[in-house]
Amino acid sequence: MKQIKKSAFILSAVALVTIYSCTKDENEVPVENLDAKTIEQPHGLEKECMYVDAYWPSSAVLSTTLSAGAGTSSDVTLMNNQNTAIKTFWRGTSVAAPLFRFVYNGTNWNSTYNAISYSTGRIYYGEGIFRDAKAKDASNLINVMILAHEYGHQLQYAFGLPSVSESTARPNELEADGMAGYYLRRGYGKSTFASIATGYEFAYAIGDYQTTSSGHHGTPPQRRSAVRLGFLLADPANAKLTASQFDYNFFYYYSGVLAGTYRLAKPANISKETHAYIMLHMEELRRIQSGEMSDEEYFNLQ
Ligand SMILES: [Zn+2]
């Protein structure tokens, strides 16, 4: 079974360039023991595919529940429901949702301050990051955004994305941020940019300036602008995008944003409406990405 899945993954990767950052050591995949509340040690790191940079400690274990200090049973239900809802939003009902588990390591919250998406169809979510994200937004919007970011990596595995390759994980990470912004508007029903402010501020806060490190996730302003572009692409006036269409749209405009240039031509496979709408926002995106835009102006974007 595992062998078949692995072969399929390699086949789908043939046409691509950038699975590089998300390869997996199959030997490290833990074996599930469904009888236990806490299951196994979450080894098997894919450091390029994490929300932040950290490793699971050897004393950490997987859990299907949250410990009392981290969250409630309603939180667990929300996260499991969203794990399915995000999958269904992008891929419909015929595809299975990732295996979702929390990672527990006592009250050493810093040691589980991460969420990781594995190419084997698993998302491991640290109690530490869950707890902090809930403290910053009790509605769990930040946690839903992080989960949508991690599912973005599942889409990358499935469809051989991103289509853009760099020497760091930046395209993978910024695209996942964009997919999260897209989901929050189009799938989670957040119609105003202000209503997802806690989410993009969290992404902003954990952006990094390790621009030559392989694990670089994008600078804080870049993560902010990536969420913004995903949100703009989700304008409900436009047709819903598949993951691959999202990738094409995202990088078409984002490359221009990074370069500080306008790209005026409308490609054949981007709709007239989407192109017109995004072009109206190109200067705004450039100013967010460069850090020129003030927080006040950013928070007041429509
Ligand atoms: Zn990531």
Give me a quick take on this structure.
This is Metalloprotease. This protein is mainly alpha-helical and 302 residues long.
Q: Can you walk me through this structure?
A:
Keywords: Hydrolase, Metalloprotease, Protease. It comes from Flavobacterium hankyongi. GO terms for molecular function: metallopeptidase activity. This is Metalloprotease. With 302 residues, this protein is mainly α. The chain has one domain (2-299). The protein has eleven helices and four strands, in the order αβαβββααααααααα. A hairpin with a 3-residue loop joins strand 3 (115-118) and strand 4. Helix 4 (141-159) crosses helix 5 (170-186) and helix 8 (243-259) crosses helix 10 (282-290). The longest helix is centred in the N-terminal third of the chain and has 19 residues, at 73-91. The radius of gyration is 18 Å and the shape is globular. The structure holds zinc ion. Zinc ion is lined by residues 49-51, 149, 153, 173, 176.
